[in-house]
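Follow-up to my post from last week.
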Amino acid sequence: MKKENLLLNAVKAGLLGGAITIFICLVGMTEIFSKRDVIEKAITLGQFVLLTTIVAMGFSAARRTAALSDQNQPILSLTAGLVAGLVTGLVLALFVFIGYQVNLRAIFLNASPPLYNLLTFGKGQSNIWLLPVIGAAGGILGAAFLLIPMMFRRPLTLGLLVTFFLALFSGLFRVVMINQKGGVAKAAKYLFGQTGLTVEGTLIFFFAVVIIAFFWNYRGKEVRARIASLPKGGQLSLRVIAFILILYIAIGLPQVSGPFIAQVIVTVALFILMGLGLNITLGFAGLLDLGFVAFYAIGAYTVGLLTSYGPFGLQHVSFWVAVPIAVLVAMLSGAVLGLPVLGVRGDYLAIATLGFGEIVRLLAGSDFLAKYFGGPQGIIGIQKPCIGTLEAFVRVDVPRACNGIELGTVKDIYYVAVLSALLLAFVAWRLRESRLGRAWMAIREDEDVAEALGINLIQTKLLAYMLGAAFAGLGGAIFATLIGSIFASSMQLLVSINVVALIVVGGMGSIPGVIVGAIALIGLPELLREVSEFRYLIYGLVLVIMMLSRPEGLWPSQATKRELHHADAENVSAEGMV
Amino acid sequence: MANILTANKVTKRFGGLVAVNGVDFNIPEKSIVSIIGPNGAGKTTFFNCITGFGRPDEGEILFEGNPIQRLRPDQITKLGISRTYQNIRLFADMTALENILVGQHVFLHSSWLSAVMGTPNVHREETEALAEAQRLLNFVGLRGKGDMLARNLPYGAQRRLEIARALATKPKLLLLDEPSAGMNPRESEDLTGFIRRLRDELGITILLIEHHMRVVMGISEAVTVLDYGEKIAEGTPAEIQRNPRVIEAYLGRGAATEGMATAHERHTGNTKKSN
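User reply:
Got it. Predicted complex:
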């Protein structure tokens, strides 16, 4: 391979890096992220994002060089990294230089003096030379990463990722730990800063993760084999221990974390309910539904109408009676949606269901039906669940007349929501393993063949719509109770899209995938209030990266996993035919 | 012998094209019957008419004396007709066992509610279904491959799995659409024996579409020839081999003097329509 070609490659990577960093600056990320530390008093999130870009460019330039030049030449790779980083730094420096000469703010709102100040570490123009230097150093660092043998690179990557994750959510851990008082609180102050980790905390977490990951790489197989070889009783008790541990955390969490985190978890749990529902329709049976929020709305409105003390309440039955009715109504509406679109396939189905979702939202919020559903004012005064006398389980006539325990706070709803999510995950799992689950999957794979094997398409598809809708209806019912009021405006198309996205990110058809997807796409952005402005920018980016690098999802269902990663290995054996 | 399937004047059109034109056709019970014909002769379309994939525009199809041409595919399957496909259509992302279990769908009765509850009945039914699926898997010679994804099975095994899945519906009549496609001579010989076993051991009537003449002539008791959607000949393999119209359909006018065996080999070697 010719030298100039390699150089060109590195320069290209550098220019791309420059473009990305400038983009990050211009959308305002750098400035806003600078208010938050990754490592306290050492590095801000803004600096971290830019630096990561540079390092990544150095890494990719080095990898490309290694692929282009036949023999393994560390010097070449390092040089490529250096050039890429240097070019990125130069581009950024040029940007800052221009910024000082010309006022770009008319076009780019964020191209402001504070940004340049940040980029030059507060020293103004005289400090511009620092950028290429940092770029070059970062580039070399990225390239060096490529040269580390795989055995060490994996643990290091994991260490960096986990530490960054901890830093990002440090506020959260800090609050939880400080609430514990005593030694734990002290440890929290040692490890976590106001925002971000302390230097000591960073080092401790990083090395702990690296060491554990290294040994797991080394010995993980052995440990797993030993667990697998345990007698049945031993395995069972391990599982029981794990279960009790999870249960303990689930029960204790809202007590130590405070209402904010409980609220976030409730939101996640509601999306898990909806995700599990759509996972039946889309993940199992392969029927894309872009109007899924409609069932959520129907569940919420049913509970609202049945329990509200407000002007639109038809009845004052208790939460416990209203929820099953809401689930049933949602289920019926699933059939109402399902019947007309039975014969519709693929893209057309997506559009048809999209229409259904919008119709429900518009009807609920319309003036036309305002005397039933409250129109834009919505339904208010929805009862909280009450555990008390037998009578209270059925009807509550007087407002706020719960004689027993009223499940009024977010913490209480947390338990209702998490319990429901667990219950439905179990139901979904049982359904998946059943004859019906197999029929759904067969329909997903090949509708015609499924029918030719004796599967009644009408019945099976309708059940998929109905059961999926029932899950979402339960989610909506809990949501209405949690908020105490419902507005048609909260039933946006975006909710449906979020649910589809979380299923895809988690892993189509996978039940743990739904949970992981909901935590990743709903929970994390809720917790990261600082980045909320860039929520959908990051969200979109994550989706694109996910689909490119891990199309089967974060936690794919067993079968899908085998298929995507071992397909090549199997093709080899396919050549030797039976 | 009584006929298990009778087709009377079956016609299927696609727009202006008459894919199957007034075909009369009988399959005696427990026989092995083949349909042959050049590509595009309407063989697969005729299969689709029988299995309910495409309703015939005219004519009627009787299965054990009852008309089935208006039924849905799942209803026809329940009556006892099952099929495989020319281009293998397994559920690629499901395991081999799951594929067969789907085939047993008709015989499982537990409702979704009892499945969620996990009643003992469901448990028993599932255990039995799994044992049956395992048995079928062994029967087609795929022992130990049950947990592999269908897409990862080698080609020949996929063909066998497709047959096992069809058998899971406990058919009385099994339609095989070019089962030996893509097989070498030894494999197709194995297949011939296997098809014969299906009939002899399980008592299943077999209807084949086939291009490999060695397979057709080796196992068929009767052969029907379609060309341009019409039945042009019918008879024992020996009769068909001598029939001038058949030779003409395959090779064009003037080639009737050539032996059929070589003619068909040429045909299968050259997949383009040769007339």
